[in-house]
Write a structure and sequence with these properties.
flat; 203 residues; two-stranded parallel sheet
């Protein structure tokens, strides 16, 4: 009986020690889980806020086109933009042409703010869709021209007649363009060189 009681006592002590060690670990896991849940909740709120902002912007854009009385023709603006990009931002580019293109695109965007459509219905409205697409195409054109003007070298499909040589010292990097209310903001990030080092194309 004494031995049995002693065994029970020893096992009880081991159990107490094990439980004492498990308590902090379990509390630690709970804290980590709670922090993770809070972080997920904050991310979900930020995503919802972004969706709300985008939704408001989209509704305002559609309402402006459907209920506005603009006098500019979307087709005419589109044709001018296409001709401009073909002439000044196509395969061979130069600084003067790109600067002229940037100025013209700003003017086209000002005209786009006064664009009007003929069809004001809400179903199968291709007139509305083409007008919306034109706005995004003008944004893309502005970014393309800004990126081409900033990169003062020739590389790959980007050829600058005024900078015909490849410049790996200054331009071996990714350029990033952000369209903001004040205009285009250019930044860059380094290139990760792995197995194959970038080389000049020679034919």
């Amino acid at each position: 009986d004494d031995r049995r009681r002693a065994g029970v006592g020893v096992r009880g002590q081991h159990a107490d020690r094990a439980g004492a060690g498990e308590g902090p670990a379990r509390r630690g896991r709970l804290v980590v889980e709670q922090l993770g849940a809070r972080q997920q909740h904050r991310r979900a709120l930020r995503r919802r806020e972004r969706r709300d902002v985008i939704g408001v912007h989209a509704r305002e854009m559609v309402d402006r086109l459907l209920h506005g009385n603009g006098t500019e023709n979307a087709g005419a603006i589109r044709a001018e933009m296409q001709e401009l990009m073909f002439n000044e931002a196509f395969v061979v580019r130069n600084g003067d042409g790109l600067r002229s293109a940037a100025s013209t695109i700003r003017s086209l965007k000002e005209r786009y703010a006064r664009v009007g459509i003929q069809d004001h219905s809400r179903t199968f409205n291709t007139d509305l869709m083409e007008a919306i697409e034109l706005g995004f195409m003008l944004d893309c054109a502005e970014l393309v021209v800004a990126g081409a003007l900033a990169r003062e070298e020739s590389r790959g499909g980007h050829y600058r007649a005024d900078f015909p040589a490849r410049d790996g010292v200054n331009w071996l990097k990714h350029t990033l363009a952000y369209l903001e209310p004040e205009g285009v903001r250019m930044t860059s990030k380094p290139v990760t060189i792995t197995r194959f080092e970038p080389k000049e194309r020679v034919y």
